[in-house]
Design brief:
This protein is of the alpha/beta class and 290 residues long. Helix content is 36%, strand content 27%. The chain folds into 2 domains: 226 residues, Rossmann fold; 46 residues, Alpha-Beta Plaits (2-Layer Sandwich).
Amino acid sequence: MNEIVILSGKGGTGKTSITAALAVMAGKDAVTADCDVDAADLYLLLKPDFSKTIEFYSGELAVINQDLCTRCNKCADVCRFKAITYVVNHYQISTLDCERCGYCEKICPTRAITMQERKSGNVYISKTKFGSIMVHAMLDVGAANSGKLVAKVKNEAKQIATSKKKHFILIDGSPGIGCPVVSSLSGANYVVLVTEPTLSGLHDLKRIYAVIKHFQIKAGCIINKYDINKEQTIEIQKFLCGEQIDHLADIPYNPSFSKAMVEGKAIVEIESPLKHVMEEIWTSIKERTN
Protein backbone atom coordinates (compact mmCIF):
# COMPACT_ATOMS: atom_id res chain seq x y z
CA MET A 1 0.00 0.00 0.00
CA ASN A 2 1.38 3.41 -1.00
CA GLU A 3 0.58 6.71 0.71
CA ILE A 4 0.67 9.52 -1.83
CA VAL A 5 0.42 13.07 -0.48
CA ILE A 6 -0.52 15.95 -2.77
CA LEU A 7 0.85 19.28 -1.50
CA SER A 8 1.44 22.85 -2.61
CA GLY A 9 3.57 25.55 -1.05
CA LYS A 10 0.72 28.03 -1.47
CA GLY A 11 -3.01 28.05 -2.03
CA GLY A 12 -4.62 28.43 -5.44
CA THR A 13 -2.25 26.23 -7.46
CA GLY A 14 -4.93 23.66 -8.35
CA LYS A 15 -3.86 21.06 -5.79
CA THR A 16 -7.35 19.99 -4.75
CA SER A 17 -8.62 19.86 -8.34
CA ILE A 18 -5.72 17.60 -9.28
CA THR A 19 -6.28 15.44 -6.19
CA ALA A 20 -9.92 14.99 -7.18
CA ALA A 21 -8.90 13.93 -10.69
CA LEU A 22 -6.40 11.40 -9.31
CA ALA A 23 -9.04 10.04 -6.91
CA VAL A 24 -11.48 9.52 -9.80
CA MET A 25 -8.88 7.67 -11.86
CA ALA A 26 -7.74 5.55 -8.89
CA GLY A 27 -11.36 4.56 -8.30
CA LYS A 28 -12.05 1.85 -5.74
CA ASP A 29 -8.36 0.92 -5.68
CA ALA A 30 -7.68 3.85 -3.33
CA VAL A 31 -8.90 5.48 -0.14
CA THR A 32 -8.97 9.28 -0.42
CA ALA A 33 -8.16 11.37 2.66
CA ASP A 34 -8.79 15.11 2.78
CA CYS A 35 -6.24 16.36 5.32
CA ASP A 36 -6.80 20.05 4.60
CA VAL A 37 -8.96 20.16 7.73
CA ASP A 38 -8.78 23.93 8.23
CA ALA A 39 -10.40 24.58 4.85
CA ALA A 40 -11.76 21.27 3.59
CA ASP A 41 -13.20 21.51 0.07
CA LEU A 42 -12.42 18.23 -1.70
CA TYR A 43 -15.95 17.09 -0.81
CA LEU A 44 -17.32 19.71 -3.23
CA LEU A 45 -15.94 17.68 -6.14
CA LEU A 46 -16.18 14.09 -4.89
CA LYS A 47 -19.64 14.47 -3.26
CA PRO A 48 -19.21 12.14 -0.24
CA ASP A 49 -22.34 10.96 1.59
CA PHE A 50 -21.16 11.73 5.18
CA SER A 51 -22.46 8.30 6.20
CA LYS A 52 -20.40 8.03 9.42
CA THR A 53 -19.42 10.82 11.83
CA ILE A 54 -16.79 10.56 14.56
CA GLU A 55 -16.50 13.44 17.02
CA PHE A 56 -12.94 14.64 17.54
CA TYR A 57 -11.86 15.87 20.98
CA SER A 58 -8.56 17.61 21.58
CA GLY A 59 -7.37 20.21 24.04
CA GLU A 60 -9.27 21.77 26.92
CA LEU A 61 -11.58 24.69 27.49
CA ALA A 62 -12.36 26.60 30.67
CA VAL A 63 -15.98 26.23 31.82
CA ILE A 64 -17.72 28.15 34.65
CA ASN A 65 -20.22 26.45 36.95
CA GLN A 66 -22.64 29.31 37.56
CA ASP A 67 -24.03 27.67 40.73
CA LEU A 68 -20.59 27.79 42.37
CA CYS A 69 -19.49 31.17 41.02
CA THR A 70 -19.55 33.98 43.63
CA ARG A 71 -18.89 36.76 41.08
CA CYS A 72 -15.61 37.67 42.81
CA ASN A 73 -14.06 38.81 39.50
CA LYS A 74 -10.68 37.18 40.24
CA CYS A 75 -10.77 35.08 37.07
CA ALA A 76 -11.44 38.11 34.87
CA ASP A 77 -8.65 40.04 36.61
CA VAL A 78 -5.99 37.42 35.86
CA CYS A 79 -7.08 36.52 32.33
CA ARG A 80 -4.50 38.23 30.12
CA PHE A 81 -6.43 37.20 27.01
CA LYS A 82 -9.59 39.10 28.05
CA ALA A 83 -11.59 35.92 27.46
CA ILE A 84 -13.75 36.29 30.61
CA THR A 85 -16.45 38.96 30.60
CA TYR A 86 -19.34 39.90 32.88
CA VAL A 87 -22.65 39.77 31.04
CA VAL A 88 -26.16 39.97 32.56
CA ASN A 89 -25.18 39.15 36.15
CA HIS A 90 -22.80 36.27 35.34
CA TYR A 91 -19.33 35.63 33.98
CA GLN A 92 -18.83 33.87 30.67
CA ILE A 93 -15.78 32.59 28.79
CA SER A 94 -15.28 33.23 25.08
CA THR A 95 -14.30 30.00 23.32
CA LEU A 96 -12.51 32.01 20.62
CA ASP A 97 -10.44 34.12 23.04
CA CYS A 98 -9.64 31.47 25.67
CA GLU A 99 -6.08 30.14 25.25
CA ARG A 100 -6.67 27.23 27.66
CA CYS A 101 -3.81 28.22 30.00
CA GLY A 102 -5.79 27.09 33.09
CA TYR A 103 -4.82 30.05 35.28
CA CYS A 104 -8.46 30.97 35.96
CA GLU A 105 -9.08 27.46 37.27
CA LYS A 106 -6.15 27.80 39.69
CA ILE A 107 -7.20 31.23 40.97
CA CYS A 108 -10.93 30.53 41.51
CA PRO A 109 -11.59 30.34 45.32
CA THR A 110 -14.78 28.24 44.97
CA ARG A 111 -13.48 25.88 42.23
CA ALA A 112 -16.26 27.09 39.96
CA ILE A 113 -13.98 26.91 36.91
CA THR A 114 -12.81 23.60 35.49
CA MET A 115 -10.83 22.70 32.39
CA GLN A 116 -12.89 20.32 30.29
CA GLU A 117 -12.01 18.35 27.17
CA ARG A 118 -13.09 20.26 24.08
CA LYS A 119 -14.81 18.95 20.97
CA SER A 120 -12.61 20.33 18.20
CA GLY A 121 -14.20 18.94 15.06
CA ASN A 122 -15.64 15.95 13.24
CA VAL A 123 -14.17 13.13 11.18
CA TYR A 124 -16.33 11.66 8.41
CA ILE A 125 -16.09 8.31 6.68
CA SER A 126 -18.00 8.42 3.42
CA LYS A 127 -18.61 6.90 0.06
CA THR A 128 -18.01 9.25 -2.85
CA LYS A 129 -20.28 9.53 -5.86
CA PHE A 130 -17.89 7.12 -7.58
CA GLY A 131 -18.32 4.45 -4.90
CA SER A 132 -14.82 4.86 -3.45
CA ILE A 133 -14.09 5.50 0.23
CA MET A 134 -13.22 8.96 1.48
CA VAL A 135 -12.10 10.01 4.95
CA HIS A 136 -12.41 13.71 5.63
CA ALA A 137 -12.85 16.13 8.50
CA MET A 138 -13.71 19.64 9.50
CA LEU A 139 -12.16 21.61 12.33
CA ASP A 140 -14.61 23.59 14.49
CA VAL A 141 -14.43 27.37 14.29
CA GLY A 142 -11.65 28.67 16.52
CA ALA A 143 -10.46 25.19 17.46
CA ALA A 144 -6.78 24.31 17.62
CA ASN A 145 -4.77 21.11 17.08
CA SER A 146 -5.42 20.72 13.37
CA GLY A 147 -2.28 18.60 13.18
CA LYS A 148 -3.82 16.05 15.53
CA LEU A 149 -7.01 16.03 13.48
CA VAL A 150 -4.94 15.33 10.35
CA ALA A 151 -3.32 12.40 12.18
CA LYS A 152 -6.78 11.08 13.07
CA VAL A 153 -7.92 11.30 9.43
CA LYS A 154 -4.79 9.52 8.24
CA ASN A 155 -5.08 6.76 10.82
CA GLU A 156 -8.71 6.10 9.88
CA ALA A 157 -7.80 6.03 6.18
CA LYS A 158 -4.87 3.68 6.81
CA GLN A 159 -7.00 1.26 8.83
CA ILE A 160 -9.64 1.15 6.10
CA ALA A 161 -7.07 0.76 3.32
CA THR A 162 -5.34 -2.06 5.20
CA SER A 163 -8.52 -3.95 6.05
CA LYS A 164 -9.92 -3.64 2.54
CA LYS A 165 -6.54 -4.30 0.85
CA LYS A 166 -6.44 -1.06 -1.12
CA HIS A 167 -3.29 -0.26 -3.09
CA PHE A 168 -3.24 3.50 -2.51
CA ILE A 169 -4.10 6.22 -0.02
CA LEU A 170 -4.44 9.60 -1.75
CA ILE A 171 -3.98 12.45 0.70
CA ASP A 172 -4.96 16.04 -0.08
CA GLY A 173 -2.74 18.05 2.27
CA SER A 174 -2.92 21.65 3.43
CA PRO A 175 -1.06 24.42 1.60
CA GLY A 176 1.99 25.89 3.29
CA ILE A 177 4.50 24.24 5.64
CA GLY A 178 2.66 24.24 8.99
CA CYS A 179 1.81 21.52 11.49
CA PRO A 180 -1.01 19.96 9.38
CA VAL A 181 1.44 19.51 6.48
CA VAL A 182 4.05 17.84 8.68
CA SER A 183 1.34 15.56 10.08
CA SER A 184 0.14 14.61 6.58
CA LEU A 185 3.70 13.66 5.57
CA SER A 186 4.08 11.09 8.35
CA GLY A 187 4.41 7.65 6.76
CA ALA A 188 4.14 8.96 3.17
CA ASN A 189 5.78 7.03 0.34
CA TYR A 190 5.61 9.74 -2.31
CA VAL A 191 4.73 13.44 -2.49
CA VAL A 192 3.17 15.15 -5.49
CA LEU A 193 3.89 18.88 -5.47
CA VAL A 194 1.61 21.22 -7.41
CA THR A 195 3.00 24.63 -8.26
CA GLU A 196 2.38 27.54 -10.61
CA PRO A 197 4.85 29.64 -12.64
CA THR A 198 4.94 32.74 -10.44
CA LEU A 199 7.57 34.20 -8.11
CA SER A 200 5.52 33.22 -5.07
CA GLY A 201 4.88 29.79 -6.58
CA LEU A 202 8.61 29.06 -6.91
CA HIS A 203 9.41 30.58 -3.51
CA ASP A 204 6.83 28.48 -1.71
CA LEU A 205 7.76 25.37 -3.72
CA LYS A 206 11.28 25.67 -2.36
CA ARG A 207 9.96 26.04 1.19
CA ILE A 208 7.72 22.99 1.06
CA TYR A 209 10.40 20.90 -0.63
CA ALA A 210 12.82 21.75 2.19
CA VAL A 211 10.33 20.10 4.57
CA ILE A 212 9.94 17.04 2.34
CA LYS A 213 13.70 16.76 1.92
CA HIS A 214 14.12 16.80 5.69
CA PHE A 215 11.91 13.72 5.93
CA GLN A 216 13.73 12.10 2.98
CA ILE A 217 10.56 11.41 0.98
CA LYS A 218 10.72 11.04 -2.79
CA ALA A 219 8.78 13.78 -4.61
CA GLY A 220 7.45 14.69 -8.03
CA CYS A 221 6.12 18.02 -9.27
CA ILE A 222 3.34 19.23 -11.55
CA ILE A 223 3.61 22.75 -12.98
CA ASN A 224 0.04 23.92 -13.44
CA LYS A 225 -0.76 26.69 -15.97
CA TYR A 226 2.85 26.47 -17.12
CA ASP A 227 2.22 28.55 -20.24
CA ILE A 228 1.10 31.74 -18.46
CA ASN A 229 4.74 32.55 -17.61
CA LYS A 230 7.21 30.42 -19.52
CA GLU A 231 10.27 32.19 -18.11
CA GLN A 232 9.20 31.31 -14.59
CA THR A 233 8.37 27.78 -15.72
CA ILE A 234 11.98 27.39 -16.89
CA GLU A 235 13.21 28.54 -13.46
CA ILE A 236 10.99 25.95 -11.76
CA GLN A 237 12.23 23.24 -14.13
CA LYS A 238 15.82 24.14 -13.27
CA PHE A 239 15.00 23.82 -9.58
CA LEU A 240 13.40 20.42 -10.11
CA CYS A 241 16.43 19.21 -12.05
CA GLY A 242 18.87 20.50 -9.43
CA GLU A 243 17.00 18.80 -6.58
CA GLN A 244 16.31 15.61 -8.57
CA ILE A 245 12.56 16.03 -8.17
CA ASP A 246 10.51 14.01 -10.68
CA HIS A 247 9.05 16.37 -13.28
CA LEU A 248 5.65 14.73 -13.64
CA ALA A 249 3.95 17.13 -16.07
CA ASP A 250 3.38 20.65 -17.32
CA ILE A 251 -0.35 21.38 -17.48
CA PRO A 252 -1.37 24.22 -19.84
CA TYR A 253 -3.89 26.82 -18.79
CA ASN A 254 -7.38 25.76 -19.82
CA PRO A 255 -10.75 27.25 -18.76
CA SER A 256 -12.18 23.73 -18.48
CA PHE A 257 -10.67 23.56 -14.98
CA SER A 258 -12.94 26.41 -13.92
CA LYS A 259 -15.87 24.92 -15.82
CA ALA A 260 -15.47 21.63 -13.96
CA MET A 261 -15.34 23.39 -10.59
CA VAL A 262 -18.48 25.38 -11.32
CA GLU A 263 -20.25 22.12 -12.16
CA GLY A 264 -18.88 20.44 -9.01
CA LYS A 265 -16.91 17.88 -11.01
CA ALA A 266 -13.35 16.69 -11.36
CA ILE A 267 -11.60 17.72 -14.57
CA VAL A 268 -11.60 14.11 -15.84
CA GLU A 269 -15.41 13.98 -15.66
CA ILE A 270 -15.94 16.51 -18.44
CA GLU A 271 -14.81 16.71 -22.05
CA SER A 272 -11.46 18.46 -21.88
CA PRO A 273 -8.05 18.17 -23.51
CA LEU A 274 -6.64 18.00 -19.98
CA LYS A 275 -8.24 14.62 -19.35
CA HIS A 276 -5.49 12.83 -21.26
CA VAL A 277 -2.83 14.84 -19.39
CA MET A 278 -4.26 13.78 -16.03
CA GLU A 279 -4.36 10.13 -17.13
CA GLU A 280 -0.67 10.32 -18.03
CA ILE A 281 0.12 11.90 -14.66
CA TRP A 282 -1.65 9.11 -12.77
CA THR A 283 0.15 6.46 -14.84
CA SER A 284 3.47 8.13 -14.10
CA ILE A 285 2.75 8.31 -10.35
CA LYS A 286 1.81 4.62 -10.23
CA GLU A 287 5.01 3.65 -12.03
CA ARG A 288 7.15 5.67 -9.63
CA THR A 289 5.45 4.44 -6.46
CA ASN A 290 5.51 0.81 -7.52
